[in-house]
């Protein structure tokens, strides 16, 4: 998924950084931390974020908690105005994950990056008026 996201961003000439976190639950707070840090003059500022990850169902209820809470965290940040392309997969097994992640099949990483860029463009359009 990361390769698909990078390819989509590069195709549009977009600069990006890659930050790796331990799991899907850490993605929303990491985005929030990056956004907060961007308020300081020495820190990078980002127009948007692409969240990539995969939660595979296991034998316990943990799957539901991780998938629900990571999605809720991203949605909460989005409602507050942050632009996030959500590419966190929630799947039953590894085969489903690969089918969605491969660029030759689902390309969910590229899709999340394109969604982020579309939202950035929409935000700019809304700021100058829809007729622009």
UniProtKB/TrEMBL annotation:
Originating organism: Brevundimonas variabilis
Pathway as given in its UniProt record: Cofactor biosynthesis; riboflavin biosynthesis; riboflavin from 2-hydroxy-3-oxobutyl phosphate and 5-amino-6-(D-ribitylamino)uracil: step 1/2
One example of a Gene Ontology biological process annotation: riboflavin biosynthetic process
Alphabetic keyword roster: Riboflavin biosynthesis, Transferase
Record lineage: Bacteria, Pseudomonadati, Pseudomonadota, Alphaproteobacteria, Caulobacterales
Top EC category: transferase
Catalytic activity: (2S)-2-hydroxy-3-oxobutyl phosphate + 5-amino-6-(D-ribitylamino)uracil = 6,7-dimethyl-8-(1-D-ribityl)lumazine + phosphate + 2 H2O + H(+)
Transferase listed as a keyword: yes
SUPFAM superfamilies assigned: Lumazine synthase
Name this polypeptide is given: 6,7-dimethyl-8-ribityllumazine synthase
């Amino acid at each position: 998924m990361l390769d698909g996201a990078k390819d989509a961003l590069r195709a549009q000439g977009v600069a990006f950084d890659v930050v790796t976190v331990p799991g899907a639950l850490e993605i929303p707070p990491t985005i929030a931390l990056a956004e907060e840090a961007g308020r300081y003059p020495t820190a990078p500022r980002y127009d948007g974020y692409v969240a990539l990850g995969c939660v595979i169902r296991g034998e316990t209820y943990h799957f539901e908690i991780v998938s629900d809470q990571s999605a809720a965290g991203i949605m909460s940040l989005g409602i507050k105005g942050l632009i996030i392309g959500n590419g966190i997969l929630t799947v039953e097994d590894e085969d489903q994950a690969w089918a969605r992640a491969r660029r030759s099949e689902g390309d969910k990483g590229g899709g999340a990056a394109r969604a982020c860029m579309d939202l950035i463009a929409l935000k700019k359009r809304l700021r100058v008026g829809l007729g622009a």
